[in-house]
Amino acid sequence: MLRLAAYCRVSTDKKEQKLSLENQQSYYSEYARENNFQLVRIYSDEGISGKQMKNRTGFLKMIEEGERGEFDILAVKDVSRFARNTCDFLTGIRRLKAAGIDVRFLGTNSSLFTDSEFILTIYAALAQQESENLSKRVIFGKTETARKGRVPNRIYGYDKVNNFTLIVNQNEGYNVRKAFLLYAEHGLSLTAIAKKFNAEKVQTKLGGSWSAKTVGRMIRNPIYIGKLVNHKTVTEDFISGSRKELPENERFVHLRPELRIVSDEIFELANTILRDTNRGR
Q1: Where does 148-279 sit in CATH, by number?
Q2: What are phi and psi of 76, to 5 degrees?
Q3: Confidence band of 95 (pLDDT split at 50, 70, 90)
């Protein structure tokens, strides 16, 4: 009996996507029964994009175990589940084919069983183009909401009400003011402030520990003087996810006085000290 392995992937960890993952797994079990295959393993990646192979532990394990001869056939629901990056797609296919693995893409209307790299490349390129188009739509949507004043999902000192509204968290706001005063007026370093907060059991927004980098980001953020700045970076390459910083004249600045926690004077003093400190390194 031929040994069947299957690979499935969902790009987010949302509830509906987890259900999709369960459905894919049931689909492969039924496929094995109908074709008299022995289903030996189902590999999966949950909440992982198909754009980069290096981040997909289930995918990489599947390739390695295929090369060790642990299964004979690999079933994948469609090309986009295997990879949305043409280069990674071909790398994976070539490694499996070299190991003698029969790779099958099982579509809803027809199945793709082919040894033609040319045909597979076309399908992979279409999957990559679809992913790129989706990425562009997402970027456009985010740019438009940023233009309208979208607020961060999580930022210390505030509680999020909706996509465009924050309210000051009084306890966290107290610590924000304390950090600025310790840095600008009492001469404590970023590292010293982080150590002080950790010693006092003050937690970050995510419930973690403070670091000099975390404190430095706080000092630099103009939201604490009521200035919300969006569209500071943009994605350069949708596959790698690399981003570039935009010049100030391309950023979206929204004056939100209700978000002020520290004065302009203490903010400018703290940032002057920070710039001078970094310049002297």
Answers
A1: 3.90.1750.20
A2: -135, 140
A3: very high
Largest alpha-carbon pair distance within the chain? Answer: 77
- Judged by phi (left if over 0) then psi (alpha if -120 to 50, else beta), residue 181 lies in alpha
Locus of tokens 């040894």: 115
Would you list the domain boundaries of the chain? 3-135, 148-279
**In the numeric block, which tokens belong to residue 274?**
């920070």
Q: How confident is the model at residue 192 (pLDDT cuts 50, 70, 90)?
A: very high
What pLDDT was estimated at residue 105? 87
Residue of 42, 46, 58 whose CA lies nearest to 17: 46
Options 3.10.20.30, 1.10.860.10, 3.40.50.1390, 3.40.140.20; CATH of 3-135: 3.40.50.1390
φ, ψ for residue 229 (rounded to 5)?
-115, 120
Element (H, E) at 75: strand 73-76
Q: At 212, is the secondary structure helix, strand, or coil?
A: helix
CA distance 127 to 118: 14
pTM comes to 0.58
- Residue in this structure with the two tokens 């295997």, named with its chain if needed: 82
Share of the chain above pLDDT 90, in %: 52
pLDDT at res. 53 = 67
Which residues sit opposite 112 in a β-bridge?
105
Nearest Cα to 262, choosing from 153, 185, 151, 149?
185
